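Hi C.,

You asked whether I'd gotten around to modeling the 228-residue construct. I have! Everything is below, sequence then structure, no commentary in between.
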Amino acid sequence: MSNRALLEVIALDAEDAVAAQAGGADRLELVTDMAADGLTPPRETFAAIRAAVDIPLRVMLRRTDGFAAGRVDLLVAQARELRAEGAEEFVLGFLNPDGGPDLTAVEAVVAELDGCRWTFHRAIDRAADRDQTRKALADLPGLDTILTAGAAAGVEAGLPVLAAEAARQGEPGYAARILVGGGLALHHVPALREAGIDAFHIGGAARPSGWSGPVSAAAVAEWRTALG
């Protein structure tokens, strides 16, 4: 495939962001607390990263580990603060206890985003019904990306689902771009590209010394080369 794939890298701080951009990242996902699988970073962290790099930044809106929204008023307040600081793109995703999308929470946050572009993240991999979740979210303003591994267990298990969903691009509920992440490894790339997927998300793969160490520009560059 000739089209350049999008490479999104998780950044925890400005040092990560600078290394990721130097390695060829197209966009960053900003989070804090990876022990909780990524929560909303402080606005000061966003400001420092925004000052350090000039590529797009998607900021996580998530207050607790798991996929329950928790205090929606606090999520909305965080979104408002981050927008006031200059954030223009976001990542979010909440489920009800029954595994359906928590549309009340999602719609409240999306209303505060006021048309900003956003990603529905890997909550979809825990949804009771992926297809119904996609269709329930499809008409929300600003949604342009679904971050998914295809399965809760990760990309290795989710490859058939990812290929099937990629084949449905453009159908109702399938207009959003598929961004593959969650246990993604370089050896998965050829099959995913062959399926027509053109957006990839890495976290630990950009950190040779693990989450306690920084993003490696060389590791990101290896991905950039592999993706074309």
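If it helps when you're writing up: The beta strands are 6-11, 27-30, 57-60, 89-92, 117-120, 143-148, 177-180, 199-202.

Thanks,
B.
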